[in-house]
Specification:
The chain has 581 residues and is α/β, with parallel strands linked by helices. The protein folds into 5 domains: 2-111, Arc Repressor Mutant, subunit A (Orthogonal Bundle); 115-278, 3-Layer(aba) Sandwich (Rossmann fold); 293-373; 391-467, Orthogonal Bundle (Arc Repressor Mutant, subunit A), CATH 1.10.10; 468-581. The protein is built from 25 helices and 14 strands. The chain has helices spanning 37-48, 56-63, 71-85, 115-125, 142-155, 168-178, 201-208, 219-226, 242-255, 293-296, 300-311, 320-332, 337-344, 347-350, 352-360, 380-389, 393-402, 411-418, 425-437, 456-463, 469-490, 500-520, 527-543, 547-560, 567-580; strands at 11-14, 17-20, 25-28, 31-32, 95-98, 102-105, 110-111, 157-161, 187-191, 232-236, 260-265, 275-278, 442-446, 449-453. A 5-stranded antiparallel beta sheet has the order 4-3-2-1-7, covered by helices on one side. A 5-stranded parallel beta sheet has the order 9-10-11-8-12, sandwiched between helices. Strands 5-6 form a two-stranded antiparallel ribbon. Helix 12 runs parallel beside helix 15 (352-360) and helix 22 runs antiparallel to helix 23. It starts with 10 loop residues before the first strand and ends with a helix.
Length: 581
């Protein structure tokens, strides 16, 4: 059986894994995978005979050559192997079970020394293939890449959707490299980001394919050319020419059955055949976790920050205190890779603590990124300018209004706060749907309801846009009044909330209460509403053991009381104030 391991001594790669058979080592993104001896032997023979059926008899003879064992032992070690590989998770597929016949390794494999030959074939047979170089190390996106590769192979037409800077292009390029052998090198990358005229979409794709089409409407000729071709077409950055890109992609999908299409956009194309893959931000260490440097480095957002800071020349000897600061930075940036990279690049100049402080002061939107980045991604400002420019005037107006909310908010809160005589419920519903589709508003289920929020970078950007002072004051007053009513409705519930899960549904509302109190007692605020809000918030602060905060706001309210203030509010404020003292 050993003679059947034709690749023994070679390095074999598949998905995020590298298998060094001679060293008996399995790596995932460079990190060793804990794999038992029997599981390793099973993997070695299956990979060596990839896409072949290996019978249970052959596996038992190879893994246990001098021992008679039951098939139960094989099933046990096979289960451990699949668990270590993440087989079946997020669409990843490595080992197929063929009932009554055996097992087969079904993922594409690459033997050491063959990649150069593959690229030479590409250069010869597909001179117009233009796939950009993939990142040397891609943090936190391996599972996304494997899942997307599997989905694209099966479904043919996938759109990667996500907010600006989340890494859609990076993942699309990685998918192209993973599938380059499956398409014999016929992988074509078309960057639509530089286009300003939607009518040029078909012409640009044709040009990338090496076609010269002399026609006012090149689409029919392009589709005819692709009809019998097996290629992977990657259309990157579709959102600003979305109607033209969607129309052409759907026509190619219908007329060219061997063409696979991968598009990236900040909103879905919404056409027949499309399957949407939402690319989430990188996972961050949650707030409130007792964080150590070791635990922090298990989160991809922290890993990316540390790597990019080191690449920019900063020296970070990551200890527990630094890990806490970095985790806070990554959370504030919502795990968006571009934002994390830009912030990490400042550590060499400002140090870690000052970088965190600058983030709190919102001085980050113009921090420069890599010189080779597209103009729309050189700064966060440029990325957000790009997204903001694609919105309708009403959507921009609504986004500026939604920036009054801190953290998550309900649709009921949005309707009550942002509507006015000129903005009705129907328009708000439609615009919020559009902002969600365009990745400008994030969503999160909370029990049976949905919660909405602006990412911190998006909110900071929206707050910088010009808003009429009178409109801003009216908006802030409605926001404060809404949360005053919310406190009155939920105040009795707070002392009964015994679990963190129960309380988490209320904490976003409490963050908005704090913001409303800041405005009420600020230079242009409404102290009368502030007094009533402080009175309603005091029992909640006390039930949450937020004694210092309770003292702060009741003191502010006491100082603001005058003869015209309602007696009930005065008595409540004094009662809570003295209860604290």
């Amino acid at each position: 059986m050993t003679g059947q391991l034709a690749h023994a001594g070679n390095t074999i790669t598949f998905g995020p894994f590298t298998l060094a058979t001679k060293e008996r080592l399995l790596l995932r993104q460079g990190a060793p995978v804990d794999l038992g001896t029997r599981a390793f032997d099973i993997l070695a023979i299956l990979v060596a005979r990839a896409n072949e059926i290996v019978s249970k008899k052959d596996l038992l003879a190879y893994v246990w050559p001098d021992v008679t064992v039951e098939e139960g032992s094989l099933r046990f070690h096979m289960a451990n192997l699949r668990k270590a590989l993440g087989d079946g998770r997020d669409g990843a597929r490595y080992i197929a079970t063929l009932t009554g016949r055996g097992y087969s390794f079904v993922a594409p494999v690459l033997i050491s020394g063959s990649r150069r030959e593959v690229h030479e074939d590409i250069a010869t047979s597909y001179p117009n293939a233009n796939l950009p170089t993939r990142l040397t190390r891609m943090v936190g996106r391996v599972d996304d890449t494997v899942s997307l590769s599997t989905k694209l192979t099966a479904m043919r037409f996938v759109t990667v959707v996500g907010t600006g800077g989340v890494g859609k292009t990076t993942v699309a390029v990685a998918v192209g490299h993973d599938l380059i052998e499956s398409f014999s090198g016929a992988v074509h990358f078309v960057d639509l980001g530089a286009l300003s005229d939607p009518s040029l979409v078909a012409t640009t794709i044709a040009s990338m394919l090496g076609l010269s089409l002399q026609s006012d409407d090149p689409a029919p000729a392009l589709i005819s050319y692709l009809a019998d071709k097996r290629i992977l077409l990657i259309l990157d950055t579709c959102e600003h020419v979305i109607d033209a890109a969607a129309d052409l992609a759907s026509r190619i999908f219908a007329a060219a059955p061997q063409v696979h299409i991968l598009t990236t956009s900040r909103e879905p194309l919404h056409v027949e055949g499309e399957h949407v893959y939402k690319l989430a931000p990188l996972a961050c260490a949650p707030d409130g976790l007792e964080l150590t440097a070791t635990v922090a480095q298990t989160f991809p957002a922290t890993q990316l920050f540390v790597e990019r800071a080191a690449a920019s020349g900063a020296r970070i000897d990551l200890d527990d205190a630094d890990a806490t600061v970095i985790a806070g930075i990554c959370r504030k940036l919502d795990g968006v890779p571009l934002a994390i990279e830009l912030a990490a690049g400042r550590v060499a100049s400002y140090g870690l603590q000052k970088t965190a402080a600058l983030l709190d002061e919102r001085l980050t939107l113009l921090w420069p990124g890599q010189r080779t980045a597209p103009p729309r991604q050189k700064t966060l400002q440029a990325t957000l300018d790009w997204s903001y420019g694609l919105l309708s005037e009403f959507e921009r107006r609504l986004l500026r209004r939604l920036a009054v909310f801190v953290s998550h908010f309900s649709i009921e809160a949005a309707l009550e706060v942002v509507t006015s005589a000129t903005v009705d419920d129907a328009h708000v519903f439609a615009a919020i749907d559009s902002l969600i589709a365009k990745s400008m508003v994030a969503t999160r289920p909370a029990g049976a309801t949905m919660r909405y929020r602006l990412l911190d970078t998006t909110r900071a950007y929206a707050l910088q846009r010009d808003v009429d002072d009178a409109e801003l004051a009216s908006l802030a007053a409605r926001h404060a009044t809404h949360y005053l009513r919310w406190l009155k409705e939920t105040g009795a519930e707070w002392p009964t909330l015994s679990s963190a899960t129960q309380r988490s549904l209320h904490l976003a509302g409490l963050a908005n209460v704090r913001a409303a109190l800041e405005w009420c007692f600020g230079p242009n605020g409404n102290t009368e509403v502030g007094i009533r809000l402080a009175a309603a918030a005091a029992p909640v602060f006390l039930s949450m053991s937020l004694l210092t905060e309770c003292h702060r706001w009741t003191t502010q309210a006491v100082l603001a009381l005058d003869d015209t203030t309602r007696g009930d509010a005065r008595r409540c404020i004094f009662r809570q104030h003295w209860a604290y003292l």
